[in-house]
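Structure representation.

___
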Amino acid sequence: MEPAISGAQLEITAGPYTAVVTECGAGLRELTWQGEPLVLTYPPSEPAPAAFGQLLIPWPNRIDHGRYTWEGQEYRLDISEPEYDNAIHGLVRWLSWTTVDMEPGRLRMTCRLMGTPGYPFQLGLEAVYALDPGDGLTITLTAVNEGPRVAPYAHGAHPYLTVGEPIDGCTVTGPGRFYLPVDDRMIPPDGPEPVEGTPYDLRAGARLGDLKIDRAFTGLDRDPDGRAWVHLAGSRRTTSFWIDRNHPWLEMYTADEVPPEHRRQGLGVEPMTGPPNAFASHTDVIALQPGDAFSGSWGIKAG
């Protein structure tokens, strides 16, 4: 086995499903069904490329110039996307997480995010990965404000669905009735617009072809259980993804600017509690009171 630079490689199984979660960031490195990959993976000897499988806390996506205001105070985050001069994908994806308990089909990990000048708040975090032989993988993320002040909070994750073939020939069905336009730095200048009449209307299913998508969607159609679904259908099989009501936003990304060997081999589907630049716009930012908790769940399954 290759040496793992992402720490412990934690494997859980249930029926036809197997998942591997990394100590680094509590990220989802592998998910298979009957040995077939459901998400794009990477070797344990390499860091996660293009945020593969990572948890995005305490904000997903981007913050314009890394600057935001909270309760009258301006903060500046480190610029982690220098090509666009943005702060991207939060602060925990490269931190070591602690395994609290592990069973054959279930894993619970925790992490404490300490305050920094750009985010002077303290969070206790828990990620639970649970496999079911019929329903596949469910991930539940919980944050508790362990500090003395109200904390701005949002979260997301970054799996890339795959059906084992390039996505150009696949059909994708997505739940969004609105999408969020962005500028050339991937920052939304205004609010959402209807998908109707645009290439981003995926509600009835659309063949991807050469369509490029890197957009957040909202106004999500949901089933009676409150889940919004994305289905990626290939020539042999389908991979499906859902998010609960605590995620009113969903980013979809056709993997156009990832390492060449992975390019357009999978579809990024990112559950988000808030949109890009949420800390600056305050759109759907959760004001997490001291001692309060917030949880959200999403999942991936075959078929």
Notes: The first strand starts at residue 9 and ends at 14. The domain at 9-165+251-302 is CATH 2.70.98.10 (Beta-galactosidase; Chain A, domain 5). The first helix runs from residue 278 to 281. The mean pLDDT is 98.
